[in-house]
Amino acid sequence: MLSHLCWRNLWFVAFLVMTPYVAALQTDTPSRQGQRLAKAESSRPQFSDFPVESIYRGKPAPPIITKDWRNFRTMIRLGAASAVNFAGRYTVPSWGCGAGCNEFVVVDSRSGVVYDGLLVVELPPAWEEHHEDSETVRMEFHPNSRLLKINACPNEENCGLYDYVMIDGKGLKLIHKELLPKEYQPPPVLLQDFLQNYVGTSDGGKGTRYFAASVSLRDDDTRYVIVYLTEDGWCGSGGCTTLILERNGFNYRVVTKVTVSRPPVRVLNTKTNGWHDISVVVQGGGIVQSYEAKLSFNGKSYPVNPTVPPAQPLTTGTAGEVVVPMSASGEPLYPPVKDLVQSPE
Q1: Of 54, 163, 239, 333, which one has the greatest count of Cβ atoms within 10 A?
Q2: Domain boundaries, the chain
């Protein structure tokens, strides 16, 4: 995934792209802008709509840190040690994740249970500048209300106005949202841009080639991309690198990086945990006779090494669709820059 610094830079690029459009909007009067914003606010739930019966004032319970939050345990413990500041019995520890970005969780001060929060990126600069007279607080919550308001881009996507309610024992529940107009949504990250950031711009990655195929792995609207990387350190005696990417809002997320794989890469008709199995060919690196290896989803990712368990040799006759053919040579990830032709003197 792109670093949060790169994400911030993308906001800047998006702002430059949208500048002509925003300039055209300047004919809209501030009063009309305010009327629209007031209308949007009036349709949102109010903090008084979700009161709490009492506010817990006892000693906060130590937060129960699961492996998902181990990297942020210090910030969570510091935040959880404070007085209740949300929904009568909760604290909302948060920490920065880059320019204009913060991440948070919700901790029960009575039990210490940690509930998932969100990664929140500020609204686009174009929106902020166009509505500079309005209050666009990124997050707002109170100890005497179960309502949490977010005016931002939750998990780096779908920028808008969001309202969540805290449900005891379950966590945050989205009850209302209003997305910003399309002109204020940043453009999606191009696959090539993502891969260039993933590979890096060092001299060692300049010769990388890639072959990409858009696939459906769960038979729903979520789109995934299988990318086969070759050249410049992405290959060894056992094969090259296969990336399984998920479209994540305006960006991509690496589901699995499969090493030592060879084409053809297939999406099989069989499923595991609701995801289609994938097969790759393995040969070399000590494996003399090539064979197809089946990669099954374990709930979080696919096996990263197709030559060892949990990857399994594929039985013959398993149907599937070839998404990376044997003949795939790929495109240059960094297209060569054409030499400037100097005119004769």
Answers
A1: 239
A2: 4-184, 191-327
